[in-house]
């Protein structure tokens, strides 16, 4: 059976429905206006934000790690064993193997750029999947069709012209948080440029101030006396003072202590010692709170002691679990397409489902207590049911055994 032939559009009962809600302002130049390049200026901006703010980079890495691993569960035991072996050993390029390594790259692109692009690479005989690769969104254009249900991924051909890629069924595309006016996804860092710019200005000012005040500079002032001879020797004594002071500072830099001896009225002051550096802890914390809240990572996981109570940390962990589940729902269709392609290539028609690893952010002792309480409740409920059956009484009405 050939899986990669381009199928003709069906006409009749099985044809795709035409949506009524679609854009009516079609451009006058046909396909030129219907293409949306994924390479925009904000892509470089988001990459710069991640490189400039370590906290943002740490949040993205933790989200990727917390999403955990994935596996498939098939109805056929043989297919289940072979499919999971394929998911563990599939080549994902750059010396990496396994579907989890692919999802790490795929999710990284989806969070930072708002879209992720992948490709299922078949073997030469078209009977197996040779690799699953993650692509660069900068190299991809999206061409809208007749409506929101019809779009194609485009890329440059051997002549450098952007055209629809020939094997659309082998391509993977996942938008992150698609919106009405941004149907192809938005970046997790979309609302961060303004705050990161302020944060960069604060850190730059701190660095400049420490460069000026931390590296101490001295002002040596010689005041000659009232005598004519003193005023005549002022220039010569100034040169001697400058020479001796330079020798003393040079010895200090080399690790030696050397005293400075001067004759006359000599005043030595530290330049900038009276000025104070502004306290930046409050504005930096306010900005970091906004950035961390956008990522959904609890502050205590980043080493930030902002949570005042243990209960607050528990609630933040529960919210993080919900966030990870939502991200997994976005990745599941891509994993399903990979598994379905492999099963069909190997002749399996059984059903399957994608199973993610459990997200466990709670204390094991608290979970054990909760499980124990549930078992106690279940035990009491069974005892109450047994006592009611023995006495012939039920809460909802008369004895059911006597009802005809």
What topology does this entry show?
Blueprint lengths: L30 H4 E3 L3 H12 L1 H13 L3 E5 L2 H13 L1 E3 L2 E2 L1 H15 L1 E8 L6 E7 L5 E4 L6 E6 L5 E3 L6 E5 L17 H21 L3 E7 L4 H5 L1 H20 L11 E7 L9 H15 L14 H36 L6 E5 L7 H28 L13
Helix pairs in contact: 2-3, 3-5, 3-9, 6-9
What does the model show?
The protein is of the alpha+beta class. The protein contains eleven helices and 13 strands. The protein has helices at 31-34, 41-52, 54-66, 77-89, 99-113, 193-213, 228-232, 234-253, 281-295, 310-345, 364-391; strands spanning 35-37, 70-74, 91-93, 96-97, 115-122, 129-135, 141-144, 151-156, 162-164, 171-175, 217-223, 265-271, 352-356. The protein has a four-stranded antiparallel beta sheet with strand order 1-7-8-9. Helix 2 packs across helix 3, helix 3 runs parallel beside helix 9 (281-295) and helix 6 runs antiparallel to helix 9. The longest helix is centred in the last third of the chain and has 36 residues, at 310-345. The protein is elongated. The protein starts with 30 loop residues before the first helix and ends in a 13-residue tail after the last helix. Mean pLDDT is 79; it is low at 1-14, 22-33 and 399-404.
């Amino acid at each position: 059976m050939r899986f990669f032939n381009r199928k003709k559009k069906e006409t009749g009962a099985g044809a795709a429905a035409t949506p009524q809600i679609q854009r009516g302002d079609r451009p006058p130049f046909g396909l030129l206006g219907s293409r949306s390049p994924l390479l925009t200026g904000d892509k470089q901006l988001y990459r710069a934000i991640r490189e400039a703010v370590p906290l943002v980079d740490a949040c993205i890495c933790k989200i990727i790690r917390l999403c955990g691993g994935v596996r498939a569960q098939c109805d056929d035991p043989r297919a289940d064993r072979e499919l999971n072996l394929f998911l563990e050993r599939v080549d994902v390029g750059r010396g990496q193997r396994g579907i989890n390594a692919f999802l790490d790259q795929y999710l990284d692109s989806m969070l930072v750029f708002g879209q992720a692009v992948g490709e299922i690479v078949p073997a030469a005989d078209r009977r197996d999947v040779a690799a699953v690769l993650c692509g660069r969104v900068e190299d991809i254009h999206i061409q809208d069709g007749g409506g929101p249900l019809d779009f194609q991924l485009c890329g440059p051909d051997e002549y450098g012209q952007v055209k629809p890629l020939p094997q659309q069924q082998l391509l993977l595309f996942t938008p992150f948080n698609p919106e009405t006016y941004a149907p192809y996804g938005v970046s997790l860092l979309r609302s961060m440029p303004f705050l990161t710019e302020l944060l960069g200005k604060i850190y730059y000012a701190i660095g400049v101030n420490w460069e000026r005040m931390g590296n101490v500079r001295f002002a040596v002032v010689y005041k000659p006396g009232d005598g004519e001879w003193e005023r005549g020797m002022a220039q010569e004594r100034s040169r001697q003072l400058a020479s001796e002071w330079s020798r003393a500072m040079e010895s200090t830099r080399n690790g030696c202590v050397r005293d400075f001896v001067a004759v006359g009225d000599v005043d030595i002051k530290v330049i900038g010692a009276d000025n104070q550096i502004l306290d930046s802890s409050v504005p930096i914390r306010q900005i970091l709170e906004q950035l961390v809240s956008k990522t959904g990572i609890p502050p205590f996981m980043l080493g930030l002691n902002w949570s005042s109570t243990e209960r607050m940390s528990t609630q933040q962990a529960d919210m993080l679990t919900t966030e990870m589940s939502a991200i997994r729902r976005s990745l599941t269709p891509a994993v399903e397409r990979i598994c379905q392609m492999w099963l069909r290539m190997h002749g399996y028609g059984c059903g399957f489902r994608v199973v993610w690893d459990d997200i466990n952010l709670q204390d094991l002792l608290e979970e054990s207590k909760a499980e124990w309480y549930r078992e106690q409740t279940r035990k009491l409920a069974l005892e109450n049911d047994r006592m009611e059956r023995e006495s012939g009484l039920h809460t909802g009405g008369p004895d059911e055994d006597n009802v005809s």
